[in-house]
Amino acid sequence: MSFEELTNLHLIGYMSGYLEAARDVLGRYYWAPFLAMRGTLTIWSCLTSPFLRETEREVGEVSELFVHPIRALRPVKITGPWKLGPHGFLYDKGMCLLFKESNERLKHTAKGHEALYDINVSLIDEYTKVMLTHKDHPNLIIDLTDFQHMENYEVETDPKGNEYCHVGERESKWISAVLGKDVRLMFSPVKTLSGEDMIIQSLDPVHIIGESSLVAFSKEAGWDVEMERFRPNIVSVGHEAYADEGWQEIKIGDTIMEFDHRTTRCLITNVNFDGVRTSDTMDTLRKHRPKCEKTKKPLFGSYFSVKQTGSVKPGDKIVLVKSRVA
Question: At 153, is the pLDDT very low, low, confident or very high (cuts 50, 70, 90)?
């Protein structure tokens, strides 16, 4: 065998050994290349993410602001700065009506409760009291500061596990007389969240609907649908129809809110605050609006949770921090 042939034979042996070793390593550590690739992508993402973030921009303005001191009754229109706490606006839906016998919450969509719409609601004495007025009854004034003294109240639980306290016999009898049914006026117990006492803690996030969205929906319905049918907290302007449904995170004033969930609509939209019923609203919602996958109810409007508390007032600009991916 020549020297050249011998050399080639040795090289083939060495190469075979290397190949065998490489195959053994890949067999044991087959995941290593994928881990390296993932690490590279992570580093690239960290380096480029600051440049790819969505730019904050002004997308609208707060046109109107409402709170609902008593769920099922008329809202109060707010004209100045209003406190936004960890779970929503101060006093919003902090009180509700429970049937005296069953202790279940009154649903104002049910027939026979139209008399509730004859009660006017207002906030007086620097927003420390709620005044209810009715043409056939003397005015009823509810002092909200009384609810700070929890030692005077007993916490009760409704069939769904919600905690309430009875406002008082005088207040419950007044509303029962208007409604013609025995109900109890209840409030949610005072809670301290993020170091803030809210007197009455709101039970719901912030409900936002765009005015342009209502205009578009009215065209689909063929008549001017009233915004009051949808019970928003904030009516926004200055953007296209349904653009508000694409907001993930927004800034208003010194507050920050984050999308919580779309608003599923129910039969309450068929009733205006004059107690007039019509099936047109719900029928049009079912026909033209997308539906919730779980409940199959039509969607219109959005609820936002509170990331940073503060205050909101009409005229505040709405700044989009992040868009929502549908």
Answer: confident
In order of 172, 207, 266, the CA distances from 97 in angstroms are 9, 21, 19
pLDDT band at 37 (very low <50, low <70, confident <90, very high): low
211-221 vs 280-288: helix crossing angle, rounded to 10: 100
Give the number of other CB atoms < 10 A from CB of residue 169.
11
d(CA 156, CA 188): 10
Alpha-carbon gap, residue 8 to 64, rounded angstroms: 89
Rounded percentage of the chain residues whose pLDDT exceeds 90: 52
Q: Is 150 helix (H, G, I), strand (E, B) or coil?
A: helix
pTM of the model: 0.78
Answer for the pair 288, 220: CB distance below 8 angstroms, yes or no: yes
Q: Is 115 helix (H, G, I), strand (E, B) or coil?
A: helix
Query: Residue 114 corresponds to which tokens in the numbers above?
Result: 């139209």
Phi, psi of 89 (to 5 degrees): -75, 145
Instruction: Grade residue 103 by pLDDT with cuts at 50, 70 and 90.
Output: confident
> How far is the CA of 103 from the CAs of 84, 132, 160, 170, 259, in angstroms?
30, 23, 10, 18, 32
274's tokens: 């004059």
Within 145-191, strands assigned E span: 155-157, 163-166, 183-187
Q: Collapse the DSSP code of 274 into the 3-class scheme (helix H, G, I; strand E, B; otherwise coil) and give the result.
A: coil
pLDDT, residue 184, reads 95
Which pair of tokens denotes residue 79? 């004209």
Cα separation, 71 vs 204, whole angstroms = 11
**Contact in structure between 230 and 301 (CB atoms under 8 Å):** yes
Q: What sign results for the dihedral spanned by CA atoms 269, 60, 316, 309?
A: positive
Residues comprising the chain, all counted: 326
pLDDT higher than 70, residue 247: yes
Cα angle 206, 207, 208; round to 5: 115
